[in-house]
Specification:
The protein is an alpha+beta fold. The chain is 19% helix and 37% strand. It has a domain of 88 residues. Pfam families: GGACT.
């Protein structure tokens, strides 16, 4: 299934991984929000923990069709995600996100904290108020 990606941390424009992983591989980047999570500070990168009623700000990234498979693989490696691996830091899940420009919803891949990581963050993590990684400084 070819879905766009919702990015909310180091892959956003101006952040350290944006150019290294996305430059030249995408058709479009649009401001978007994910209405089902909270953002926690991690060791140099954030985690989304799924929570109803909260909002995380980021970008909806639509890859070039010819880059899709390679980009999916490289982002899975970056996020240390392997399907079914209990050691995952993140899980890649299909969720609804909302384009800021027109309020339309679209299904996208979202990397969310894996269950064990989410439990640790809920217990003693640092919440990023407002759900915007780039505004945390």
């Amino acid at each position: 299934m070819t879905l766009p990606f919702f990015v909310y941390g180091t892959l956003r424009p101006g952040e350290p991984n944006h150019d290294a992983f996305l430059r030249g591989r995408v058709l479009m980047e649009q401001p978007a929000v994910f209405g089902g999570g909270v953002l926690y500070d991690g060791p140099g990168y954030p985690y989304v923990v799924e929570e109803p009623g909260e909002v995380v700000r980021g970008e909806l990234v639509t890859p070039r069709p010819e880059e899709y498979g390679a980009l999916l693989a490289v982002l899975d490696r970056l996020e240390e995600y392997a399907p079914g691996d209990p050691r995952n830091l993140y899980e890649r899940v299909e969720r609804e996100v909302t384009r800021v420009a027109d309020g339309s919803g679209v299904r996208a891949w979202v990397y969310v904290a894996a269950p064990a990581v989410a439990a640790r963050l809920r217990a003693r993590g640092t919440l990023i108020e407002g759900g915007d990684w780039t505004a945390r400084r």
